[in-house]
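Quick one: co-fold with magnesium ion.
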Amino acid sequence: MIEVEDLSHLKEAIVILEGLKVRASNTVGERYGFKKDKSLLSVFTCKEMDKIVDKIQKNKDFSIETDAYFFEIQAKRFVSFHFNPKKGLLIVNDLTEEKKLDEAKLDFVMAVSHELFTPLSASKANVFLLKDLEKDSEKLQILEKIERSLDKMETIIRQSKVLAMVQLGLYELKMESVSVKEILEKIFEDLRRKIESKKIKLKFLLEVDELETDRFVFYTILKNLISNAVKYSYPKSEVEVIVSKEKMTVKDQGIGIKEEERERIFERFYRGAEALKMAPGSGLGLSIVKHLCNMIGYKLEVKSRWLLGSEFTVRFR
Ligand SMILES: Nc1ncnc2c1ncn2[C@@H]1O[C@H](COP(=O)(O)OP(=O)(O)O)[C@@H](O)[C@H]1O
Ligand SMILES: [Mg+2]
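Sure, here it is.
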């Protein structure tokens, strides 16, 4: 049996439950009101309360991050709940301070992205004007390089802003019936130049016409996955996209991902060592995909073999 006294040094509240009743708790837990014989319902409340009660009563494990109001301290805290039914153990971690810090960082990203757009647009317009006036081909080449760099900056700023918005919870999902074919055509159009220049054979397998989803989220996830598949494929290879009612898969025969890089590819700005040599990029695409999947409740899976190819699957659940 777990002795809660041994757990008093932990930052988390550790609560041992008997059904919905608190049997014991460490000191941190007591501070939040998890006191012996109290029902969970009289300790805290949150939006997911019904779900939490249901899972505990059915002895099912769960992990939830949410805002919860604790009656004992009369305050709302942002916490994670983990329930282990085998031991009847509820672990509550107060993440309020971390969240505040994260939000401050994100606020900064939002503000900077916003402020950078104006001077960036002005630079782009001026390069455009100069290109029109310039006859010297060497100078034109330099101007084109500047143009590409500015485009890349614009992409990074735009992507950082999307990421910050999603993480700050500012994006409101709008669920509607979306035509898969229409979205794929748009993505194909966006990526046409890259696909054609590398002579990539793009194969679509659509097992469903319409999906109930958020148009922007669905488009952004799929576009990033297909764009990566094309980018990290060898010329003339095949990229396969399968969309069904339950999931979508993007499969390529490209450079693949090294085992030791697998964990890191979803980090902001992370780019694989070989990927860096192969094509330009911001390292933000998969980070956006991950956050969008979390937001809409999709499950993201990766299978990949170094030098042989990768397969990204998104399960709609
Ligand atoms: N289909 C793929 N094949 C091989 N590597 C991939 C693939 N998709 C993503 N990666 C790896 O994950 C990294 C992060 O991807 P992403 O966030 O989209 O950034 P970017 O494409 O700008 O590098 C890439 O740099 C690459 O190393
Ligand atoms: Mg990418």
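If it helps, The domain at 175-315 is CATH 3.30.565.10 (Heat Shock Protein 90).
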